Amino acid sequence: MENQSDSQNKYNKKLGIIYGVMAFTAWGFLPVYWDLLNQIPALEILAHRIVWSFIFVTALLIVKGKFNTLKEILASRQKSLLVFAGAVLISINWYTYIWAVNSNFVLQTSMGYYINPLVVSLLSMVVLKEKFNKGKITALILATIGVLIQTVQYGSVPWVALILAVSFALYGLVKKIVNIDTITALALETLMITPIALFYIGRIELGGTGSLTVIPFSVLVILLLSGIVTATPLLWFARGTQLVEFSTIGFLQYIAPTISFFLGVFFFREDFSITHLISFGFIWTALIVYTLAITRGTKKEQGQVRTSKSETRV
């Protein structure tokens, strides 16, 4: 029979995967949401996302009675530095994405989120010393080939994609390392960048180029809700990274660009080339191999635990 610790660990892993799936599914469908705000400049949307995310998570802290924990965390230099690092990394990621969209590098943003799981898996092996069996290594190689096929199309180093991939992978690593309540951490991260966002919003509104007073009320509501839409998947993602192996989170991240791919083809009517088909073939094969590797690894661990328990009883 399973002891309480084994049951709890199994439950935590399942819960972590659920949180991860929810986060990346939400991010996959986000293009539809942002398309509703296409009349507003992307950088202005970003500023509002930051401000309303801070307001949303701060409200959650107050409701949960955890607002005082902010002082405790800020009193710890190590935790403060980690939270600040997370704030910088997510700011770089968001800014790069907005700049790329405004500068016609949309394809590179898509590539960035395909490269990201590879960087996450690499970090999990190098930094967190997570073990990879032959199946997981094979899956990583297949996924790398799939990404390289898309990379070759550009004929040069896709710096935008690499910045997006590395910044978000490092952000996930920080969330994995720091032992802080997810809501509190996100509140601190957004707190550190909200003054800049407020300054930008105030400047464009006073300069007469802001959107708050000219957009329809329905669009204004969607803009104000951007904080909830932004913060909620981040909270799910942060929780997921705490409950499962970092490498597992890495491969779950293929959910978001895959959903975005189907939206691009069937909703936004973008072209689907043979190169995309071949690349996706390698990536999906990698996911199948990785899933089988995880399943076999789990069964092997359970078998070893049963054998160990039987020997102990004897």
Write the layout of secondary structure elements.
Layout: H1 4-35, H2 42-64, H3 69-74, H4 77-102, H5 106-126, H6 134-152, H7 159-177, H8 182-206, H9 217-224, H10 226-243, H11 246-252, H12 255-267, H13 274-313
What does it look like?
- The protein is mainly alpha-helical and 314 residues long.
- It has 13 helices and no strands.
- Helix 1 packs antiparallel against helix 10 and helix 7 packs across helix 10.
Order of helices and strands: HHHHHHHHHHHHH
Number of helices: 13
Mean pLDDT: 81
Which parts are unreliable, with pLDDT below 50 for 5 consecutive residues or more? none
Q: Which term fits the overall shape?
A: globular
DSSP helix fraction: over 70%
Count of distinct strands: 0
Structural class, please?
A: mainly alpha
Strand residues, percent: under 5%
Radius of gyration equals 21 Å
User: End-to-end span in angstroms?
Assistant: 15 Å
Sheet with the most strands, sense and barrel status? none
Short description:
The chain has helices spanning 4-35, 42-64, 69-74, 77-102, 106-126, 134-152, 159-177, 182-206, 217-224, 226-243, 246-252, 255-267, 274-313. The chain is mainly α.
